[in-house]
Design goal:
The chain has a nine-stranded mixed sheet with strand order 1-2-9-3-8-7-6-5-4. The N terminus is likely disordered. By secondary structure, it is of the alpha+beta class. It is built from ten helices and nine strands.
Length: 277
Amino acid sequence: MGDYVVAPPFGDFVWLTRKQLSALSLFVENHLDWAIQLKVCADVMPKANHFITERSGYVHQINYPSYEEWSECLINCKFRNQVTQGRKNGLVVNISHEETAILNFWEMHANLRMNKFGEIPQPKAFFLHLHRMYFEENLGFVINASDRSGNLIAGIIVLVENDTAYYKFAASIPSSLALRPNNFLIDRLIAYLDELGIKKMNLGYTGATTEYNGLRKFKLSAGASETNRYTMRTANYESLTFRQIEVVNKHVMDLIKRKPSLEIVDQFSERYYKYFV
């Protein structure tokens, strides 16, 4: 619907203090004709003139002094047991900076979004851009889990910004979840980050609706703390027409019904994914 004027790292939220909220109110008073939406993290519900504010979910982050303390003190018993199950199931973990690794992840990610969630993935070119920006600068990697036969069954794309690792994308093969790859991957990821001297892992946004209950529970069981995320919108934003988005959504549903190849999905995403950002 428009261009970002300012985007924080990875674009999920900004932190705003009371002083910054006052400055925001002043700014909007001089731009009352603008349609503005902000995704904000704050300790209490932020209030600013000319904005309608609602709680829209959570941002989760794991802070750990060391891998050992995380494993012994921060995670719950069930999570720890599932890490052990992953180890007993013979899962093999690999960390890669290679372009082929991110392309293999994209295929798993695309299939999961299409088949489980009925959504199109980001285009393949987006992931290749992440590779150029982060992986080639040694600021990102893919951590994968494979089964005893060497089949890729789960993976996480991790990006590093300053002192924090961002759990940016995760995907898995639904039929392999009984092997507990996601729990095992987080365990091995935190052990690796600890070796690198990184003590914070941001798990990103989790929605507030019931569909997200399982994901929220999973993140909390992994030792994450949570902060409320709010959406702030001006009246002009509320009155925008989203007809173009509705048309695109219909195209997405029609595409999914045809069970297209990943090549066709990628071509479609190149054309339409920009409308969802």
